Amino acid sequence: MSVRIIERRRDKAEWLAANLKNTMVLFGDGTDVEFLKAENIQDADSFISVTESEQTNLLSGMLAHHLGVKQTVIHVSTTEYMPIVQEIGFGAVLSKNMSTVNSILRFIASDQSETSVTTFDEIDVDVIEFCPDSGSKVTKSPLSEIKFPVDSIVGVINHHGHLSIARGSSQLTDEDTVLVFAKSKTIPKLRKLFEV
């Protein structure tokens, strides 16, 4: 798996490049159409925009979607932009404001092996938290060798409090918790991968 980070501040881009392994850091602007084209953004499987600016996240996500990225994920602080996202019909939306609700959901459903962290019914995208069963398919091979449903992607792995971005070479254990971005229709297939 190839990960590229776009950073518009030179000092931060240099720091990221020096400190992140297996990651290409690009000094540029994620809202610059020519820059995105020059970087062949259309070949990317996923585009995740999580800057502090909702407008930047929305615009760069829209551009990536327009240029042919298969899946886009954007971060917003409010639901003010949800009508735009629904109208365009692209990707998943994450919101920090959902974190309190998520904590309550996890507490209520703590005896379940999966928890729907965030659901946006209008765009049919969920972020699901899975805890793999010992001996499940996802614990037997690296992620790149597992046949995940087309409309799903493993995003984050939590191993004893250490968070990491999922990569093709990542190997899950029954001690991990993972966040999976998926269309609702894929959840039964995903469940089979995480259960024995």
Q: What are the key terms here?
A:
Alpha-Beta Plaits; 196 residues; single chain; three-stranded parallel sheet
**Percentage of residues in strands:** 25-35%
H/E series: EHEHEHEHEHEEEEEH
CATH topology of the largest domain: Alpha-Beta Plaits
Catalogue the unreliable spans: 103-115
What is the CATH domain class of the largest domain? Alpha Beta
Count of separate structural domains: 2
How far the N terminus sits from the C terminus, by CA atoms, comes to: 27 Å
Structural class: alpha/beta
Main β sheet profile: 5 strands, antiparallel
> How many β-strand stretches?
10
Query: How would you state the average pLDDT, rounded?
Result: 80
Strand order of the largest sheet: 6-7-10-8-9
Regarding quaternary structure, what we see is single chain
Large-scale geometry: globular
Q: How would you name the CATH homologous superfamily of the largest domain? A: Regulator of K+ conductance, C-terminal domain
What topology does this entry show?
Blueprint: E1 3-7, H1 10-19, E2 23-27, H2 33-38, E3 46-49, H3 54-66, E4 71-76, H4 82-88, E5 92-95, H5 99-108, E6 114-120, E7 125-130, E8 152-159, E9 162-165, E10 176-183, H6 187-194
Parallel strand pairs: 1-2, 3-4, 4-5
Antiparallel strand pairs: 6-7, 7-10, 8-9, 8-10
